[in-house]
Amino acid sequence: MNFKTGEIFAIDKPYGITSFKALAHVRYVLSHTLGHRVKIGHAGTLDPLATGVLILCTGKCTKQIETLQAHTKEYEATLQLGATTPSYDMEHEVNETFATAHITEDAIREALPQFVGDIQQTPPTFSACKIDGKRAYSMRREGQDVVLKPKNIHIDSIEITRFDPDTMQLDLRIVCGKGTYIRALARDLGRALGSGAYLTQLRRTRVGEYDIDKCIVYDHFQEWLDNQEIETSNETVTV
Asked: What is the pTM of this model?
């Protein structure tokens, strides 16, 4: 492998850290091991509370980031029906509860098709979207009102993998394109059901050809790197 010339690989981002922090850790390990700073970027941000496939590009391969971001993505999501939070995930406490007695699996199946295909989706206000150069989440945390415009997105499919009518927890498998917010999908599905919903768990299991089963475990990145043959401009070295 030649990280200076350019490599593309994927890690399994753990829960509770930003994509930038995950990237910074990998950059540190690479730079420390190779003895020089490595140019590196990631293709497609994951929220801190989400886990899964995070593609990293080094060297000249960073030019492919935009192309990689456009690849189809697959997610496994758990939704809690009957309540909402300001961010539509577990970053914030529940701020509103709703009736759920009328919600059945059949009702969910009837509601889902409206979210498949080419649709418009309004991003969550707690998001990295920019308004006049400022991040929406920063404005919300400062107590400012935030209004975001709907964006055109594409969702290939949504599959129910589990529904528990006692706890009102719903598991979905979603295949979608660039720019899709699964938190916003939870919000909109809750509204379509005449209730509310937010994410309790989100895992990205695939980006294009990069599958979660082939990702490097974040905490074992140094161990993985130690087992690679690293190329320099003049030689190949086993670290």
From this structure: 0.90
